[in-house]
Amino acid sequence: MSDTHPSPLYRKAHSIIHRWGLFATQDIPKGTRIIQYTGIKITKAESERRAILQEQAALKEGDGSVYIFELNKRYDLDGNTPDNLAKFINHSCAPTCEAVLERGKIWIEALKPIKEGDELFFDYGYDMANFLDHPCACGAKECIGYIVRKDQRAKVRRLLLAKKKI
Ligand SMILES: [Zn+2]
């Protein structure tokens, strides 16, 4: 567990984007490993079952959060556990952090220098399937209004434009 760090680089606080967020407690240089994204290792079958449940809860509660990460071909990681503080990091289409998978562990690392007090963000990278269930309010200029993987954003943008014309 990385949460035993003597002075964590982050703290949990209210976010204007979505409920809770993590914020830098000091200036963080680019490339810094900030926090481990912990959770429970589950099989792909279990992962699929949980993903459907989380999607259903998301629709009911208007909370589009899915906390499942791919670890490898056989296993995923479900980060929806009480001790995983990294799950409070919000998505941004112009993120300051990235999730890095290394030897079966997921770390949140700084993509660029982060200033003390800034909220931490990483790109959730959701597949465009069901993108309407995952609205985005990050406010970045590259934001298309939904949380979608970077390489699928142009496609979704075209879909949304075509819809407006009808
Ligand atoms: Zn966005």
Entry keywords:
166 residues, alpha+beta, Beta-clip-like, 2 domains, three-stranded antiparallel β-sheet, 2 helices, 10 strands, binds zinc ion
Word description of this protein:
This protein is of the alpha+beta class and 166 residues long. The protein has two domains: 2-125, SET domain (Beta-clip-like, Beta Complex); 126-166, no CATH class. The protein is 19% helix and 25% strand. The strands form four sheets. A three-stranded antiparallel beta sheet has the order 3-9-8, with no helix packed on it. A three-stranded antiparallel beta sheet has the order 4-6-5, with helices on one face. Strand 1 and strand 2 (20-24) form a beta hairpin. It is globular. The chain starts with 9 loop residues before the first strand and ends with a helix. The mean pLDDT is 89.
Sequence-ordered SSE layout with sheet pairings:
Blueprint: E1 10-14, E2 20-24, E3 33-37, E4 40-43, H1 44-61, E5 68-70, E6 75-78, E7 90-91, E8 97-102, E9 105-110, E10 121-122, H2 153-165
Parallel strand pairs: 7-10
Antiparallel strand pairs: 1-2, 3-9, 4-6, 5-6, 8-9
Zinc ion binds next to loops.
Q: Radius of gyration in whole Å, from Cα?
A: 16 Å
| Number of continuous helical runs | 2
Largest sheet: 3 strands, antiparallel
How are the strands ordered across the major sheet?
3-9-8
CATH topology of the largest domain: Beta-clip-like
Structural class: alpha+beta
Low-pLDDT stretches: none
Order of helices and strands: EEEEHEEEEEEH
Average pLDDT across residues? 89
Number of domains: 2
Shape: globular
